[in-house]
Model the fold of this input.
Amino acid sequence: MSITVGQPNKSRRTKKVHSEVENKPLIAGDKPNSFAYWLYFIPGILLTAVFVVYPVLYNVTLSFLHWKGGFSAVSFAGFENWAHLLQDSTFWLSFRNIIYMIIVMVVVPTLLGLILAAILFDVIGRRFSGKVASFLRATYYLPQVIPIAVAGVLFGWILYPDKTGVLNQFLTFVTGHDVEINWVGGTGSTALFSIGLLMVWIQLGYPTVIFMAALQRVDPELYEAAELDGAGWFRRFQAITKPQIRPEIFVVTLTMTIAALKVFGPVFILTQGGPNKATYVPSYYAYIQYFGNATDKGYAATIATSVAIVVSIVAVLFLRAQRRAEEKEA
Done:
C-alpha cells in the first residue's frame, strides 16, 4: 500500500496560483484604470473626431461666414445668415413640408406597423403558423433593403404621368375613364402625395419587424387567459400588446422622426423639389444652396445647422418623455 505525501500542499498551491491569475488585470498596469485601457478607445475616438465632431464644428463655423466656394474670398457674416434664415420664405416652406414628412414617415408607418405586428403575432402566428408570419414579416421589410434610388425609379414608373403609368392605368380600369394625372410634376399636393406614398411603403417594414421582435418576449399565456375571459383582438391589443412594447414604440418613433427631419433621397429622386419648390425640405434646400452656382455656402451651412439643432431638441424631448413614462410605470 503506497501513500502519497504532499498532495494537499500541491492543491493549495494550485488554488493560490489560479487565484492570483484571476486577480491580475487583463492589461498590464499597476492600477485598474491604467492608461493601457484607453488604448482600445483611441480608434473609435479618432473616427468620431474626424467624421462627426470636425464636420459639425466646421459646419457651425461656416454658418457665420460668407463664402461662394472654391478660391473665392471668405468674409465674416456674424448673424446675417441666421437673420436671413428667419426671413426666408423658401426655408419656412421646406420646414412646413417636414410636418407632412413626419406624418407619412412616422405616424402612419408606426400605427400601421403596430397593428400589423399585433395581427401577425396574435392572429396569423397562432391560427396558422410561425412560418407564415415570418414570411409576411420579411415581405413587409423588403422595401427597407432596396436602395432608395431603386425605389424612387420604381415609383417613378408607377406614377408616370400619361396612360402608361401603372397607377393611372389602374384608375382608368376602376373608373372606366382615361386618367392621366401628373402625380410627380402636376401640383404641389400630388407631388407631396407621391413622396408620401413612397415613404410609407419604405418605412412600414421597420416598425413591423421591431414590434414583432418585442412581442416575442410577451408571455403567450397572457393572450390565452385574456381570450378565455372573452377579450377580443382589439381589447387584447389595448391591454396587453401596447403596454408591453412601449419602450420599442419610443425607439421607433424617435429614430423615424429623426429620419423624417433629415429626409433627402426621395425628394431628390422623385421631384427634385418641384413643382415650383412645392416639395422642398430643409436638407434638399441646403443641398441646392451648397452645390448651386454662385450660392452662399455659409447660408447652406446655416440651414444644415438649424436642422441639426431641431433634431437634437426632438431627441432630448423624446428621451425625457420616455424617462417620465418609465418613472410612472415604476
Q: What stands out?
A: Residues 1-6 have pLDDT under 50 and may be disordered. The domain at 83-147+204-329 is CATH 1.10.3720.10 (MetI-like fold).
